[in-house]
């Protein structure tokens, strides 16, 4: 009886350590990626920096749509090397969770790419402030 209880506790400890390792090890990568995304968006705020600023993209209602809708919009922009790193980091952050999913539900209004990037930056900053998502790793990038 005591051996069975000891084995159960040992097994429970192994499972707990495995779960903790997964949570702790993935967090710094996501934090670093989110920080890079915010830095890139901050650097792209000036429309003059974008050779493709005249590109029109679907507006995303970040209050209702998933973050993968932003990635879907970015993936539809062509001939814009300034957003390539941003697109790669968004792909990395969202990983394979959106591979076969159509995230952009409403496509009724188009805006300039620079406006979209500014809206995305504002949304991410507000999300981090309000929900505390990855806040400690972002430093001054959460201040408007």
UniProtKB/TrEMBL annotation:
GO CC terms of this entry: extracellular region
Signal peptide boundaries: 1-26
Keyword Signal annotated: yes
Keywords on record: Signal
GO function terms (MF aspect): cytokine receptor binding
GO biological process: immune response
The keyword Nucleotidyltransferase appears for this protein: no
Subunit structure: Interacts with IL13RA2.
Record-given protein name: Interleukin-13
Phylogenetic placement of the source organism: Eukaryota, Metazoa, Chordata, Craniata, Vertebrata
């Amino acid at each position: 009886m005591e051996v069975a209880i000891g084995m159960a506790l040992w097994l429970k400890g192994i499972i707990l350590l495995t779960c903790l390792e997964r949570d702790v090890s993935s967090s710094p990568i996501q934090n670093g990626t989110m920080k890079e995304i915010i830095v890139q968006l901050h650097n792209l705020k000036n429309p003059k920096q974008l050779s493709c600023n005249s590109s029109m993209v679907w507006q995303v209602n970040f209050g209702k749509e998933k973050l993968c809708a932003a990635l879907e919009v970015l993936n539809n922009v062509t001939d814009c090397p300034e957003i390539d790193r941003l697109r790669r980091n968004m792909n990395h952050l969202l990983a394979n969770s959106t591979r076969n999913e159509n995230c952009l539900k409403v496509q009724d209004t188009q805006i300039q790419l620079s406006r979209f990037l500014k809206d995305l930056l504002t949304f991410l900053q507000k999300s981090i402030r309000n929900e505390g998502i990855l806040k400690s790793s972002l430093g001054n990038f959460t201040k408007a």
